[in-house]
Amino acid sequence: MNLHENSHALIFGGTQGLGLAIAHALAAQGCTRVVLAARDRAKGEAAAEDLGASFLPVDLADAGAVIAAVDRAAEIMGRVDAMCLAGASTDRGSILDTTPEVWDSVMAANARGPFFAIQRTAQLARAKGHPASIVTILSMVIHCGQSFLAPYSASKAALANITRNSANALRHDRIRVNGIACGWMDTPGEDATQRRFHGASDDWLVEAEARQPFGMLVKPDHVAGLAAYLLGPGSGVMTGAIIDFDQNVSGAYPE
Asked: Which fold has domain 8-183+218-244?
């Protein structure tokens, strides 16, 4: 079904992992107008060429560059009516050892930049009088998070509030904003994170998945289908929702 044949999609963090999977899901549903925006130019240009999309180099931590990227994407495609925020900083730190510099950089990439991406997308949609749908990629850490993910957890919790607050503010403009709180996911970024911060060996994924209830980590393609649904007309008037996408239930305790 070509549910996205009329979509004009901008995907932040769309050059690998979940962001790229979302871009492919949109393309599979008929979306022929896609702009990928991320920091890595080489990966971005390769991904865009494979998709027949456009690529914009941008760092989510740079609010001015984020706003300019939304404007440029609108110029390239004519409008932005489907926007997804899939990029993030996953730098580590606990309440005891997080520095102000790490705090500021994580909050800039995961909350400040996304806030202004949503703002600019909404401003342009209102100016042209067309509906739009926005999806924020959150994390199960919004409910608490591991001790070594203090700034990351705080930033994603802030983005969850931004998601709901924006949904409430923009609903009468027919602009929908929803979020997906993902669990532990099997992505290239997670592989790099495990090796960089946790000294993981080559078989870390096999060991990690053996401990999971369903024998696997969350897979990008699973979440991508939900994101495409939320970005498209099939999700109707749904707005302000935060959906947990995980095999562990928040608030549950060992029995």
From this structure: Rossmann fold (3.40.50)
